[in-house]
Design a protein that fits this description.
The complex is a heterodimer of chains A (538) and B (85). Helices cover 45% and strands 15% of the residues of chain A. Chain A contains 20 helices and 16 strands. In chain A, the strands form two sheets. Chain A has an eight-stranded mixed β-sheet with strand order 1-8-7-3-4-5-6-2. Chain A has an eight-stranded parallel beta barrel with strand order 9-10-11-12-13-14-15-16, surrounded by four helices. In chain A, a hairpin with a 4-residue loop joins strand 7 and strand 8. The model of chain A has no long low-confidence stretch (mean pLDDT 89). With 85 residues, chain B is of the alpha+beta class. Helix content of chain B is 39%, strand content 25%. Chain B has a four-stranded antiparallel β-sheet. Chain B is globular. The model of chain B has no long low-confidence stretch (mean pLDDT 88).
């Protein structure tokens, strides 16, 4: 068994035989010909065939992926029909008595050079189109073109990289998976693979060697792994994983676009928890209705200095714009405890979970907090923002926070910088906050219950300490009562209340949370559709 | 000989697709159609030559039409530029 790693661009599992796709080679042999007429006819025939292929590719792409993706094949037909291009080829055949392959190759080089020398990115990009059409003609001429009919059964394609024209020429139902050596998660092929729902890996460290042809392989798009000649154990495991993934996808399709509404008709806001800009794809793919927890720490971790206002603004703005008016709740910096960044220079603590963390840092080092708030407020002009503050224990804190927010607003007004409307809310993740939620609620628009910390603080059990697992009960009545109390108190003041901790995705508790009157559940994108199904059953 | 002057409105300038359509449209007439941007000239029936001019948005081009069907060709070209570029 051979295991190779790649970057997954579509989560799914495929099991089947490998088909190694070798790119049509543009390099050609240079030969002198004697029968000019025959060579011209050979070129004409190849060109006609190429035009026919492009015409049917255009129609196929139009059906499969739409007008925008298909247009390229229309342009390719026009380029192939260009007088200068054709005259150059026939000229080389006639005057230099060279073979058609060589004539196309030389013409290709010449026109590519012309486009590459232009001072315009768009036009430079057209050189690739010239190369693409020329390769097509050459591969028809020298008989190296791989026709999709060459694949009798659905296969896992292994290739160096695939041009859009190559991806699209395969019959959709003949492709189980695509594994490429090059490419990127944003390459054309990756985007196409996602649109077509094909498990795919890019930048995979596998040689594109015909020796793999016909070998059995598994593509695990969840782990980003390719198994060639899998052993029996792997096969059993992967068959099971594929079954689950297929079921999940069927479920996904069924729940996509449906309302998240209980049997009694209450609409629940089903949101996603994310850790960075890159997770927005997953949120949209899983049809979540918003983002209930955007952990802003990711901007601060893994670096050696504070992120600036503009950098933060760009990240928040990107997420807000991509969510197109759907709710996005960003939690301010929650650093400390298990999330540390050296440049914060937080003194070593005896008990970090009960120490200098989250809002306590922000209210002590106000300049850090103000930078983040300025970035958040500026971003609020680009979508439907909610700002949420972590680790609150008293009314005094929220009052101070709101004063600072008002000061930041005035500052922006003075500088004539735009900001939009936004909601303010707090995390309920300490027993203190839950117990005085009646006093906190009048000051905020919403509560979001962070069940991970709330459980740990309520039960006095460190979640990192595995030897306490026997004592830890995630469904402990104390936790559930605090949640109930929090929801009731929120509603009394006209605030809404959600859950963004792990318990939110615990399907055994969904019915109970709904009974308590929960308004929102925010979970990992991958749980969205399953939870929607569960809510619709309650 | 007939001619008209036109300023390109398309964001991408004379890009591949309209250039291809222009070449097709020009090929429908016997007249010679030439595009002139002041520094370069191109035969409108030749797609790559048109693209090679690299005409950007805001550039003003002169289109010259000469031949037995120049009246009809010029009118058609002017119409094409207005609706596609």
């Amino acid at each position: 068994m051979l295991v190779r790693e790649g970057k997954s661009v579509f989560k799914g599992v495929a099991i089947g035989k490998i088909f190694v796709y070798k790119k049509a080679d543009k390099a050609v042999t240079k030969e002198t010909i004697t029968d000019v007429e025959a060579e011209l006819a050979r070129f004409q025939a190849a060109k006609e065939k190429a035009l026919e292929q492009l015409k049917s590719l255009y129609e196929k792409a139009l059906r499969d992926v739409g007008e925008e993706e298909a247009m390229i094949f229309d342009v390719h037909q026009m380029l192939l029909d260009d007088l200068d291009y054709n005259e150059s080829i026939t000229g080389i055949i006639e005057s230099e008595k060279m073979n058609a392959e060589y004539a196309v190759f030389m013409t290709c080089e010449q026109f590519m050079a012309m486009f590459l020398s232009m001072d315009d990115d768009y036009m430079r990009g057209r050189a690739a189109d010239i190369e693409d059409i020329s390769k097509r003609v050459i591969s028809i001429l020298n008989g190296t073109q791989v026709s999709p009919e060459a694949m009798p059964e659905p296969v896992i394609i292994v290739a160096e990289d695939l041009a859009p024209s190559e991806t699209v020429q395969f019959e959709k139902d003949k492709i189980l998976a695509i594994v490429t050596q090059k490419g990127s998660a944003n390459s054309h092929t990756a985007i196409l693979a996602r649109t077509m729902n094909i498990p795919s890996l890019v930048t995979t460290d596998i040689e594109v060697d015909p020796k793999y042809n016909g070998r059995t392989a598994v593509v695990d798009g969840f782990a980003g792994l390719l198994y060639v000649n899998p052993d029996e154990e792997t096969m059993v495991k992967m068959t099971e994983k594929k079954k689950r993934a297929d079921e999940q996808r069927a479920l996904l399709q069924e729940m996509r676009g449906k309302d998240t509404v209980t049997k009694s008709g209450k609409h629940i806001h089903l949101y996603s928890n994310i850790g960075g800009v890159q997770d927005v794809d997953a949120v949209l793919e899983n049809d979540a209705e918003g983002i209930g927890l955007f952990r802003s720490e990711f901007l601060y971790l893994g670096r050696d200095n504070y992120p600036g206002e503009d950098e933060q603004f760009e990240a928040y703005k990107t997420v807000l714009s991509r969510m197109q008016g759907k709710k996005v709740i960003i939690r301010t910096l929650d650093i400390g405890a298990d999330k540390q960044a050296d440049y914060f220079e937080i003194p070593k603590e005896e008990n970090p979970a009960l120490g200098f963390r989250a809002i306590r840092i922000c209210l002590t080092r106000e300049e850090v907090f103000r930078t983040q708030l300025r970035a958040l407020l500026r971003a609020s002009a680009f979508g439907n923002l909610g700002i949420m503050f972590p680790m609150i224990i008293s009314v005094k804190e929220i009052v101070r926070i709101k004063e600072i927010v008002e000061e930041v607003k005035l500052e922006l007004d003075r500088e004539d910088i735009a900001y939009g409307n936004f909601e303010l809310g707090i995390m309920i993740e300490t027993p203190a906050a839950a117990v005085i939620s009646d006093l906190l609620a009048p000051h905020v628009d919403f509560f979001s219950i962070g069940t991970n910390d709330l459980s740990q603080y309520t039960l006095a059990i460190d979640r990192q300490n595995q030897s306490l697992d026997n004592f830890f009960d995630p469904h402990h009545e104390a936790i559930l009562r605090l949640i109930q109390l929090t929801i009731e108190n929120a509603h009394k003041s006209g605030a809404w209340c959600g859950i963004c901790g792990e318990l939110g995705a615990d399907m055994e508790l969904t019915a109970r949370f709904l009974q308590m009157g929960i308004d929102e559940l925010s979970v990992s994108p991958g749980y969205t559709l399953e939870l929607r199904k569960r809510i619709r059953e309650c | 000989m007939k001619s008209f002057v036109y300023t390109i409105q398309d964001e991408l300038g004379i890009h591949a697709r309209p250039a291809g359509m222009l070449a097709k449209a020009a090929a429908g007439y016997k007249s010679v159609v030439t595009i002139d941007n002041g520094t370069k000239k191109a035969d409108a029936k030749r797609l790559m030559a048109i693209m090679g001019m690299g005409v950007k948005k805001g550039t003003t081009v002169t289109v010259l039409v000469e031949g037995e069907d120049e009246d009809a060709a010029c009118a058609a070209m002017e119409e094409f530029f207005k609706s596609n570029l």
